[in-house]
Amino acid sequence: MIDKRSGPIREGVKGHFLLCAADFAFWDFSPDFFGKLCDSFGIGDPTTARRILSFMPGTNASLELMYKGVVSAADPYRSGSQQEFATWQVANSGGDLLGFVFKDGTFPQLDELAWNGPQLNAAADRLGANYTAFHQGLDATNLGGLPVVSVEHSFGSAAAGEAEANVTFDARVLLAPIGMKEGWQPNPDTRYTVYAAEDDINKLFYDVHVPVPFLDGLGYGAAPNAGGALEIRESGIVAENVIWKGLTAGLLGGLWTASDSVAHHNQIISSGNNDQVLFGVAGQLSGAR
Prior knowledge:
Layout: E1 2-7, E2 16-20, E3 23-27, E4 40-43, E5 51-56, H1 63-66, H2 84-91, E6 97-102, H3 113-116, H4 121-139, E7 148-153, H5 156-163, E8 171-175, E9 191-196, E10 209-210, E11 218-219, E12 230-234, H6 242-248, H7 250-267, H8 275-287
Helix pairs in contact: 4-5, 6-7
């Protein structure tokens, strides 16, 4: 059943909800109801929130993955859902963290690489504008003023980087990021942290940028390993079977390496085999009060 009440947050309302045009719609879980009508999927209790996690997914994000399985704060270990990382953080926060998982827009897809791939800067422009609008809407609610940490996976780092032209985050956590568009500059009021697996697939594309004016450029020139304002932290996700991969070499070794690099790229937003990142980010969120 959908609880169709919206507007000011009501005492005692808990669980999942949507943020639509700066109003809250509270509901009991019913994933079949939702399309692209609302900006973001919310997790937690708005009445006790003291800090906010805003999760921006990356390449291949979809509504199917958004609602894959039924992830709840009481059972946050459903593998493969875009809600998984944010739900784990809320479930382990002590009750004062409110999570949002952004879903407003068409995300790049690898099977549409030529016209809707993550290498197209226009995708960062489009989703960055939507992420900006979401946070401006959030500021208009009675949650405005709470510290916000933007947690971004892969391509999501580029979109969030574009949003920074109009939105100031207390912190940004970049998980296996692709980087930001050429010319991006850090905000002096924002703390930046980067986690990536040793062999993360995106590391192959750091600093790859081709200026193509009518496409707004290809690739992201502000690499997330540049240092400076970006604090690089160990993810604990290490390259595996390096010697054997070297011995097999050639096509077999290359396929094995690529397969692990993609698996580790996605492992960094899971709620299992990922303790160093999960607890590291939890500590950063705890400090955002």
